[in-house]
Write a structure and sequence with these properties.
The protein is of the alpha+beta class. Helix content is about 45%, strand content about 20%. The longest helix has 27 residues.
């Protein structure tokens, strides 16, 4: 007879009459603290949130160190300023992120999900608040089972108020990366938010409040596409959370500290704690499941139980399918992690990162867009020469002000009329109108190629040569 499936509270899961989906049951996650992987997880929570909440308050050369200024269409990242013309670096960043994800997944499965995914990070934060306010798992289950009373209302009110404060502060911080945070603070004090800012603060806050506070594991199980296509990225040598059935079965309870020789059952005492600590509510003893986010909470919990009953740790551990089937030693597992697939990912990733770093290191902090006046292709100037008018948009992407000298070449006797020396402040742009003139017999009729050279007078390495076309009637 098939066993009735149960959630991590021990209650049976109710299947609807159509048998198409299971009725959602609240997962009451039991806390596990002090374990190796729990410390790593919280260490990354603290690190990622310290960076996220803190970076917007760092100043760099009198401005915000990291700012994606949408109004000015400029991205500031410490000493670098990126303009829309630098979209290639955004593409490279996305490619690097994709290959890094492929590499991490091929080696360690869903490590990103378990330790650095924003959904996991903020769920951990909101669950920590929940435990501090409502108590541990049995207390929360008991509280939710009670009818509404003054104590329950007070605890729920405090919890949701703290959740909303965290969500609003996170939304404020998020917008602070796109609108200068000092302007945002001033707008907050004056209650004069722009419609763009107030929409995204509230939208991001509501999204976090809903996703991390209520949906939680449903995001990982039903909404996240990564959970669905991760199987394609796994192979038998990928590290995953595994339960050792050869050692654990048959399951059975036994007294504390009786050792492994005094009982005939397996090491698993069927306590169910590995299920209770799982944030997605799965039973890792049933084998690999796509809902597993590799947070390793079950490893910490099981190791603690093994210590209490006097059995060796590792009943649940990081391992691979091949390691379990062929009984690899730890060294053999490490050797098989470096296989052609992971080596290829590593080589490609390092190559792209090296190319990006090299490109940034030789990047000239000057960009020029040249547009010829199309309202008048050519005209005769007062001195009898043929004149074409050009608009030069000069973008200084450096952190210092520069004075640029403009010259032109490409046709015999070509010369410029207008402002040839241009001062452009740091991380700013300026548009100048210049006329290029040549004698009517200096070239072939029609379009001829010419070159504008824009050179910083106080820095020999900053020079840009852009081509344009000169039209002779």
């Amino acid at each position: 007879m098939m066993k009735q499936p149960a959630d991590n509270s021990g209650k049976p899961i109710v299947i609807n009459s159509d048998g198409l989906y299971e009725k959602h049951k609240t997962i009451y996650v039991r806390s596990v603290s002090g374990g190796l992987f729990d410390n790593w997880r919280w260490g990354l929570v603290i690190l990622t949130q310290a960076l996220f909440y803190g970076l917007i308050w760092f100043d760099w050369n009198g401005r915000q160190a990291v700012l994606f200024h949408l109004v000015e269409r400029k991205f500031y990242i410490f000493g670098m300023v990126f303009w829309p013309q630098d979209v290639i670096y955004l593409a490279l960043l996305l490619v690097i992120s994709a290959y890094a994800l492929f590499l991490v997944t091929a080696i360690g499965g869903r490590l990103f999900c378990g330790y650095a995914c924003p959904q996991t990070v903020y769920t951990e934060i909101l669950m920590w608040i929940e435990r501090k306010v409502e108590g541990e798992r049995p207390a929360r289950m008991k509280l939710d089972a009670q009818p509404m009373n003054s104590r329950k209302f007070r605890l729920k009110f405090v919890k949701h108020t703290l959740w909303l404060l965290v969500s609003l502060w996170t939304g404020f911080t998020f917008v602070g990366y796109f609108t200068p945070v000092k302007e945002l603070v001033a707008s907050t004090l004056a209650f004069s938010f722009g419609s763009w800012e107030i929409f995204w603060i509230l939208f991001y806050a509501a999204f976090l409040y809903m996703q991390a506070g209520f949906l939680r594991e449903q995001v990982c199980k039903y909404m996240c596409p990564y959970a669905r296509f991760q199987g394609v990225m796994f192979d038998p040598d990928t590290l995953i959370i595994t339960y050792d059935p050869e050692r654990g079965e048959p399951r059975g309870a036994r007294k504390k500290n009786v050792g492994t020789k005094a009982h005939v059952s397996g090491d698993c005492i069927d306590c169910g704690i590995c299920v209770q600590v799982c944030p997605t509510g799965i039973d890792i003893r049933d084998g690999m499941q796509y809902e597993c986010i590799a947070c390793a909470a079950c490893i910490d919990a099981c190791d603690e139980v093994m210590d209490k009953v006097g059995s060796p740790r590792g009943l649940i551990r990081y391992s691979t399918e091949n390691a379990m089937a062929k009984h690899y030693k730890p060294r053999d597992i490490l050797v098989h992690l470096m296989r052609p697939r992971t080596i290829l990912y590593t080589v490609i990733l390092l190559a792209i990162m090296a190319a990006t770093a090299w490109s940034l290191s030789i990047r000239i902090p000057l960009k020029v867009d040249i547009i010829r006046d199309r309202s008048s292709l050519a005209r005769e100037a007062d001195d009898g020469r043929i004149e074409n008018v050009f608009s030069l948009h000069i973008m200084n992407t450096d952190e210092a002000e520069h004075r640029y000298a403009i010259s032109v070449s490409g046709m015999d006797g070509i010369d410029l009329v207008g402002e040839r020396i241009v001062d452009v402040p740091a991380a700013s742009a300026k548009t100048v109108m210049l006329s290029a003139r040549v004698d009517g017999e200096s070239g072939n009729k029609g379009s001829s190629r010419i070159f504008f050279e824009i050179k910083a007078q106080n820095h020999e390495g900053i020079v840009v040569r852009e081509k344009a076309s000169f039209f002779l009637p």
